[in-house]
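ok new one. same drill as before - structure tokens go in, u give me an amino acid for every spot. 408 of them this time. try not to just spam alanines like last time pls lmao
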């Protein structure tokens, strides 16, 4: 059973870091890479509360690419265990169940909430965050029944989606109804990330919302806002024509091309903001959006999220974490902005009750409120991972949005 794994070794890390500057494919297409294809990578159930899933599709996430390009902050390294099989966006079919698993049987189609919080780790005395339902904020991600790991796809004991099989705790498994196809199934995880960020930071109907980034998460934020029947004004900053088309498809009021020479003026006009010229440096924007969702995680996009937010507004950082130098934080102080990070998914307030984000995402898909299957533009067998990663890193040239593996 094949798997695509990441195995940190200092010599490999250094060689990939140096070689990758000259040719990006050396990060995954080299004998000295930290990425390796393993033919025999069978996973066993950690205990009787777990099940084995035969993977149908597993997505390539921006965080996976960040890992492969060795851009992750060292601050996340204690929450991994090597070697681990990559992949946390997973739809599959139950292949084996432990004796303590109920409500799930062999043959069921499922998606997996990959966060390895207290319950999957078998920790009886749950941490304060898990007691509140904030599973993504669990403080026990290095303890319990399995090795350290923020989630499946970063833990050596669970496997990951970039393989033929993966194991998951019974609390992480969500059955898919017949109305939700497998392509929507593989999108449940990224959609849940977007849904969580919107539900924890809901726009008002009269707000102007700016979404920076027209990739999977940015488009999913639009879909989340509209599927929750929020009628705010949505403006999106995109890079490619396909992103623009899909932004309008999912309910954006305006999509603006990221053109280095013109986007500041066009975006400012759309936000009824004023552009001011400093003595040197980037333009200063006065006014802006009530709420900004930053969905890229790059220095430029973070800087834009801060300067295009109006005084007293809010910035929600959903894009990848990382070390970013020379970001000007002046507007946070000057305009009294609220800046907030948002990671993964948990328990949400929904129609008067507490529900898991994955449950809500699946319900919205089942009701026909959202269909994300058009975002899955390319799929590859695991053995063709060189081509898959090449496509995922050059999306604009290949009209790609979500690239997935089809292992079986």
């Amino acid at each position: 059973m094949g798997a695509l794994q990441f195995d940190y070794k200092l010599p490999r890390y250094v060689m990939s870091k140096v070689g990758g500057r000259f040719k990006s494919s050396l990060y995954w297409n080299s004998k000295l890479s930290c990425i390796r294809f393993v033919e025999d990578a069978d996973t066993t159930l950690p205990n009787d509360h777990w099940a084995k899933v035969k993977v149908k599709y597993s997505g390539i996430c921006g965080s996976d690419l960040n890992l492969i390009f060795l851009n992750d902050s060292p601050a996340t390294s204690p929450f991994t265990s090597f070697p681990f099989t990559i992949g946390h966006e997973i739809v599959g079919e139950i292949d084996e169940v432990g004796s303590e698993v109920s409500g799930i049987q062999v043959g069921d189609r499922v998606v997996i909430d990959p966060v390895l919080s207290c319950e999957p780790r078998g920790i009886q005395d749950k941490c304060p965050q898990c007691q509140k339902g904030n599973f993504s904020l669990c403080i026990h991600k290095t303890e319990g029944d399995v090795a350290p790991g923020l989630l499946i796809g970063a833990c050596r004991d669970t496997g990951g989606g970039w393989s033929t099989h993966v194991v998951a705790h019974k609390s992480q498994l969500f059955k898919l109804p017949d109305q939700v196809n497998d392509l929507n199934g593989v999108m449940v995880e990224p959609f849940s990330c977007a849904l969580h960020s919107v539900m924890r930071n809901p726009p008002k109907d009269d707000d102007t919302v700016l979404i920076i980034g027209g990739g999977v998460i940015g488009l999913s934020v639009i879909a989340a806002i509209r599927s929750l029947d929020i009628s705010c004004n949505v403006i999106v900053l995109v890079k490619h024509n396909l992103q623009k088309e899909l932004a309008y498809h999912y309910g954006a009021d305006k999509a603006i091309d990221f053109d280095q020479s013109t986007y500041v003026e066009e975006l400012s006009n759309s936000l009824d903001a004023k552009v001011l010229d400093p003595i040197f440096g980037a333009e200063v924007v006065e006014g802006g959006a009530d709420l900004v969702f930053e969905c890229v995680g790059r220095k430029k996009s973070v800087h834009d999220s801060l300067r295009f937010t109006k005084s007293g507004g809010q910035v929600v950082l959903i894009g990848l974490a990382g070390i970013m130098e020379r970001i000007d934080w002046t507007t946070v102080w000057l305009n009294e902005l609220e800046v907030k990070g948002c990671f993964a998914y948990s328990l949400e307030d929904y129609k008067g009750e507490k529900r898991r984000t994955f449950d809500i995402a699946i319900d919205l898909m089942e009701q026909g409120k959202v269909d994300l299957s058009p975002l899955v533009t390319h799929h590859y067998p695991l053995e063709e991972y060189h081509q898959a990663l090449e496509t995922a890193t050059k999306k604009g040239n290949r009209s790609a949005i979500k690239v997935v593996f089809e292992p079986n």
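The chain has two domains: 3-187+372-405, 199-341. and btw The chain has a mean pLDDT of 96.
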